[in-house]
């Protein structure tokens, strides 16, 4: 399923045409939202991760969401003991056996089992397997040797080798090469293989991953930091370490990977002048280009080659604005797609060269051009061809290999023709049947040969609720749900060819 989300996604696309993201080279921003309109009912995105099957997970202030490129599924805390233990999701990691580890606001991890979509609350059930130093885990990381490193709030580090099943521990002792403390905030692996261990006090141990001893100890400037902080760290491809505290206005510290000199970067201070000191997330977009997600400053793009900073927010783009200037999370997946989690406006993503837009329109000089310019809806079939619903021109089927269009129009003398020419929505169900929602002409379906029409009949309780169809949706059981214009919701019983209607303003309902 690798790449599945990328092929199917319909969310916020940031399209930069320049090869280096600089203010003078930003040509155009095109926005589409992955938010409540697609089922992301909570748009406060605190964390993101892509699992081994290629699906994206979003941890929000109220619920865990999974996106497979087509649909969003929500997981909430319920009375069921196999549900997540809390709805406020802070962090997520892919752990041993490719299982998703979900950390909530209480610091508890729930582990997801994809076979039955159940969650194990807490990690005690896995203690006999992983032999961790403590069931209380701060974070986890997979290194280049495919070992998993678990930090513990007061017990140092456990290192689990999935291949051998063995676990070793790194903790503070009185011996030479010991950790500075067991109070660890974050860890990261550098390009040279060293593990940077960041303590809550601002001390940084450089740990040899094989001998498991500290080879050098660094310290952030005491005058710049509190006595204890919840640091996070990202090490870029040059080996430079970037540290910040998402809960404090510290800006970002850059520790040179070679000289180990520390540089403080804040508003009007340091090599890189930020527009906001509250840094919430950081990622290396590409070599030498560091993205900082800030609270009310949007994204600060630091270019290490030029020393410049570009601010991506609502004040300096051409056609539109950033979805929100409060960025809570940034994530770069294994296909170099950068995901942006905002405070109130859902998810965005960016990939240089992921998509390039060409303008398809009617051309009277080209018989193979798009026949009708006013387009409302699309649906792609299993062959990769497109059904195109137009605003008054009927339905077109575009064969992408031959670049030809087949046209279907409503014929008032033929009750089995297309139900109407003003098409608002299209849906291909799991059997390949096309469902057609029209303005004022009800619902239709098309199996590739014949049309079946469902017209609105006033006073018929088993008929569709209204004449204008605004949205069509197929649920996981194959039922077709229809959102109408000002007439509520209808659900089609395909076997009996009857509708169950739920008028606007009616009591909440659940259909079994």
TrEMBL record:
Keywords: Phosphoprotein
Keyword Phosphoprotein belongs to the record: yes
Protein origin, superkingdom: Bacteria
Matching Gene3D superfamilies: YVTN repeat-like/Quinoprotein amine dehydrogenase
Pfam families: Reg_prop
MF GO annotations: phosphorelay sensor kinase activity
The keyword Phosphoprotein belongs to this UniProt entry's keyword annotation: yes
Protein name: Two component regulator propeller
């Amino acid at each position: 399923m690798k790449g599945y989300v990328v092929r199917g996604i319909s969310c916020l696309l940031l399209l930069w045409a320049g090869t280096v993201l600089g203010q003078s080279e930003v040509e155009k921003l095109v926005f589409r939202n992955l938010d409540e309109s697609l089922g992301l009912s909570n748009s406060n995105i605190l964390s993101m991760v892509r699992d081994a099957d290629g699906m994206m997970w979003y941890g929000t202030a109220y619920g865990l969401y999974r996106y497979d490129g087509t649909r969003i599924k929500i997981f909430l805390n319920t009375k069921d003991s196999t549900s997540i233990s809390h709805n406020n999701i802070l962090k997520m990691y892919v752990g041993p056996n490719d299982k998703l580890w979900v950390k909530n606001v209480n610091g508890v991890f729930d582990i997801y089992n994809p076979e039955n979509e159940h969650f194990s609350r807490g990690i005690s059930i896995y203690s006999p397997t992983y032999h961790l130093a403590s069931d209380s885990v701060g974070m986890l990381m997979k290194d280049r040797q495919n070992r998993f490193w678990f930090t513990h709030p007061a017990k140092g580090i456990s290192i689990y080798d999935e291949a051998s099943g063995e676990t070793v521990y790194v903790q503070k002792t009185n011996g030479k090469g010991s950790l500075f403390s067991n109070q660890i905030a974050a860890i990261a692996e550098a390009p040279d293989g060293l593990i940077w261990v960041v303590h809550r006090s601002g001390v940084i141990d450089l740990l040899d991953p094989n001998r498991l001893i500290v080879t050098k100890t660094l310290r952030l400037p005491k005058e710049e930091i509190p006595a204890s902080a919840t640091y996070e760290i990202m090490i870029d491809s040059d080996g430079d370490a970037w540290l910040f505290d998402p809960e404090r206005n510290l800006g970002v510290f850059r520790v040179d990977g070679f000289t180990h000199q520390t540089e403080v970067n804040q508003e009007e201070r340091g090599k890189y002048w930020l527009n906001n000191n509250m840094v919430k997330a950081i990622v290396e977009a590409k070599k030498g280009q560091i993205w900082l997600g800030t609270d009310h400053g949007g994204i600060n793009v630091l270019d290490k080659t030029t020393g410049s900073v570009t601010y991506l927010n609502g004040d300096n783009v051409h056609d539109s604005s950033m979805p929100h200037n409060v960025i809570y999370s940034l994530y770069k997946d294994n296909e170099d797609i950068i995901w942006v989690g905002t405070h109130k406006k859902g998810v965005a993503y960016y990939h240089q060269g992921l998509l390039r837009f060409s303008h398809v329109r009617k051309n009277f000089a080209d018989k193979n051009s798009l026949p009708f310019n006013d387009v409302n809806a699309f649906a792609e079939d299993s062959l990769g061809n497109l059904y195109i619903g137009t605003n008054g021109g009927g339905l077109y089927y575009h064969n992408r290999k031959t670049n030809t269009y087949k046209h279907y129009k409503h014929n008032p003398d033929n009750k089995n023709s297309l139900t109407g020419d003003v098409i608002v929505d299209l849906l291909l169900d799991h059997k390949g049947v096309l469902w057609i929602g029209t303005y004022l002409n009800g619902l239709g379906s098309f199996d590739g040969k014949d049309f079946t029409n469902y017209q609105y009949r006033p006073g018929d309780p088993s008929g569709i609720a209204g004449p204008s169809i605004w949205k069509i949706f197929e649920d996981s059981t194959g039922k077709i749900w229809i959102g109408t214009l000002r007439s509520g919701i209808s659900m089609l019983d395909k076997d009996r060819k009857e509708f169950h209607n739920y008028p606007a303003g009616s009591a909440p309902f659940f259909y079994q």
